[in-house]
Structure formats: C-alpha cells, structure tokens
Write a structure and sequence with these properties.
eight-stranded mixed beta sheet
Amino acid sequence: MPYDGQGGAKTSHDDLLRNPEIIEFMAECEDVPRPTQEEIKETLDTQPKIDDFKGELPKIIIAIDGSTYESSLDPKFPSRRIGYVKISMVILQTDQYGKLKERTTRAVDPMAVARLQENTEAISMGLPGAYVIVKGAESVSDGFRQRLMAYYRSANTKLGDNTLYDTLFEVANHMSPSRVKDNHLLFKVCPNRECSSNQKLEDGEGTKTRDKVDIRVPHGTGIATCPVCGSNVYTTDILRVHEDFLESGSNVSSLGRLMLITEHLLALHYVMHLRKLNKKLLGDTCVIVDGPLAVFGNPAPLHTGIMRLLHDINKGQISDGHDVPVIMGLSKTGAIADHANLIKNLLPDGTIFPISDDYRYGFIDVSKRGRKANFGQETYYGQDFLVKTNEGRLFPMCLAYPLPDKTNETSFQQEKMNIEKYMSMGRALKVLTTFESDLYQNSMIPVVLAHRHASISLTPGGKVLDIFSKMALGKS
C-alpha cells in the first residue's frame, strides 16, 4: 500500500505483462458463453409477443426505491459511525400523466410535471453504527435492533390502522412453516450472539450442537426476554439484518440488506392497505420495486411468507371478481441487466423473453452450468422476463409468481414458465410501454422519480449528513 499522497510508478505494470504465469493464466480463461441467434429464436418462436397481450393501464402506480449512507462521526476516530436508510414511494395517477401527452404543443408544462410528484412519501431511518451505543441499550448491536424495531412500529409507516410492523408480522404468519402461533412470533435461536444457547456444545457422540430456546414474542408489545441470557428479543429480529452487524466496523452491508427487505415489505404494505380500503382499486394498481422480486442474504426466508401472502390476496381478488394487482420488479443493474445488454441486438423488437432455468445456468449464471435445481428456490418470489418494446428499449422485468409455494421443485420449474398463468402480464406490459423513458438507458418514469427522491448523493447529501451526525453527537 502506498503512503498517503504517494503515486505509483508509470512502468510498474510491465512485470505483470511479461510474467509467463500470468500470460499462461490468461490463455486458459474462457469467455462467458453467449447465446446464438438460433438459440434465442428457438425460445421466442414458442412464446407470445407483446402485441398478443391486451391490458388496461392501471390507474395507480406506486414506485419504491431506496438509498443508504454511512457517516463517520469524527475525523480523529473515523471508526465511529451512524447509518442512514431512506426509502421513497412515488404514487402516480396515470390519468394525470396521460393529460401531459395529450397537449397540442411539444413543450410540457413544468408545473404539471411537478404536480405528478406531489404524492411522494418517504421512510427515513438513522441507525447506530460501530462504537455508538443508544441510551439504555445493552450494547451497540442491541441499540441497532432497538431502533429498527422503533422505526417499523413508527406512526410514519402507518397506512390505515397498520404499521409496517403489522405487515411484517403477517408475512411471518405466512412463512413456510409459519413462525406465528397464538399471535406470538416464535424464535428458536436467541438473536444475542453472546447467549450461551448460541454456543456449539459437544453432545454424547462428539457432534457439535446448540441448546434450543423457545422465545415467544407477543404481537402487542413486539418484545420478549430470552430465558437463557435475559437479553431483549424483538419482532424485527426476524429480519436477521443484525446478524451481519459489526460493532467495530463498517455496516454498509447490513444497511443494504435492511433497505432491500424494507422495500419489498413496503410494497406488500401498500397492497394490504388497498385490499382493506378498496379491492377494485387494488386491481387497478401497479407496484414497482427496484431489482428482482427476491430477498437475498439473511432475510431470505421471508420470501416464502411474501409469496404465500400475495397468492392469498390474488385469490381473494379473483373470488370477488376483481383484477389482481401488478407486482413488478425492474432491474437497473445486476447479472440479468448485464446479460440483457449483451443480447439486446439479438432480440427482435416487441418480444418477451422468459428466462428459463436451463438458459440462466447456460448463459447467465455459468458457475452453475448443468444444474437442474429450481433457480431462486431460497430467494425468489417472481419470474424474470426480458421485454424488448416496439421502441427498441429492453427491460429486465420480474413478475410475482402465480403460485403459492415451491413444494415440488420439478413441477414448479415448469409452471413458472407458463406465461398464460401471469394474469397481470398484459397490464404490466402496458405500464412498460407507456412509461418507458429516454432519460436513462432502459429507464421508466416512475422509477426515475422514486430514485431521484430516495437517493443520497455523496456530495452534497452525504457531506450534509456527516455534518449533521457530528453536531448531533457533540462533535464540531
């Protein structure tokens, strides 16, 4: 590593270029396999095109996007940190957007555009990081968990009578198997890493095991006590984002996991609220989240609860004679987005390309080439599609599975590829083609607005948060 301010030599790369072992290594590297026109055509010939699907544009579009930032409190002790999470929800009424396009002049009224963004909500969280202990907390980690619980129960997350905490509890009740019994959330592992129940013990046969605990957290208070160590256990511990939390290091990873799972729970939070408020309006709603419909990392088990709950909601909609809501994920980055750019010129305009497991393992996730297991078995609750519009823009779109679970992996792999089962497909495509934008590559107007409201720029946004953090903790 160089000294602060020390530059590198201009010719130091020569040794790398001349090293025979490196040259040999580069010769052995294989390129990622790329599909041919024939292989793609073979899939497309058996699938319908965009124009084959008809659907009315939903009346309401809710776009959700988030951002995180970790602030260092003191230049002399840069390890002291505070984390920030901001998630924005932009609600667009599509009839108002349609009026903009009906104008006879090419100039668009900027005031009318501004009014489209008036229905914007945001959830903001400030969370303790390394070496910062919340008053009354047992430890840095306990303070993080305590504050997270407070935010999920906050009136700022309230829709009708329910907070985001209530939606999380309902997701837990739909998990497979259910984590709720008699209105209590069940924990078999204490969230406190120092608890003796988490320490592996040798049993009589020399196998390392853990003492099991039975912690029942009531829905009403959302807090219980571990019978082994006496530490607090919160309902929001089911998110498991605290498991990666570092009391003496950066927690960018934990903040990112928290942001992503909260985005998905907020999408469901709006859906559940609309179901109580007006089922017909719920059928006229499209909810868009950033990225695929999947939960990664420690919170991943929650995806089964989200999937089952959405399926129950859809069943109720159909039974009552209403449309199902459009639940959509759009990926701006990642493996699917990268692959979409790779094959963009091979896809004809106006086509839908469903990503099968065989195709994914063969050309996208090549480290699993030849694998037969269901992709996303532990993470996904939606199916990935590549949609190339008639205007030539390509969108990695993910739609919620029309199935309650993945009990039978083999049959599930087949059923998830049946496009006819996706009742929201026509309306989802209508949203894409109506709101596709030239502003950024393959962008959509609602997502652009949500990200604009949620994103925390490094300058000046990040700098302002740094100053605010230092002032709040008495550092000038």
